Amino acid sequence: MRRAHLNRLEAKAPRRARALLAGAAALAVLAACEPIVRVHGYAPQDAQIEQIQVGVDGPGAVAQKIGRPSTGGVVRDNTWYYVSARTEAMAYNSPEIVERRVVAVHFSDDALVEGVDVYGLEDGRVINLATRTTPTFGRELTVLEQLFGNISNVGSTLAEGFNE
């Protein structure tokens, strides 16, 4: 009786192992569907921005309340910019910016906070700074057209050499 019971358990073991393996594979597939999220930069949240007092706080107080900026003004150094972006990428796709936050703290000539502006992704414009491609004019050639075109060019260059 005991031996028959053990034989039945041994027969169920491969089925359980297959079921566990199938479950693990399903979890792996589902985990692969999760986007890869990256956050770059730092921009203070609304609660931190509310601590800044316009006309009262100077650069030292702002730095103490929300930290130093990631960048300053280009022409004049009277604006501090805090920039953060969140990107998501699915599997092998290129990352896509899903959230961007820019906080600009403007200082007056007296070095007091003049105003604070908050910009989001919807406020920006897409500017492609480095495309890493060179635009070409004309039509694009297929691989075969390129090969046969080069062969005919070599032949005409050789023929010109013989005519001289």
TrEMBL record:
Keywords: Membrane, Signal. It comes from the Bacteria. Residues 41-115 form the Outer membrane protein assembly factor BamE domain. PROSITE patterns: PROKAR_LIPOPROTEIN (PS51257). One of its GO terms (cellular component) is outer membrane. The keyword Phosphoprotein does not apply. Residues 1-31 form the signal peptide. Gene3D superfamilies: 3.30.1450.10. The keyword Membrane applies. This is Beta-barrel assembly machine subunit BamE. It comes from Albimonas pacifica. The lineage of its organism: Bacteria, Pseudomonadati, Pseudomonadota, Alphaproteobacteria, Rhodobacterales.
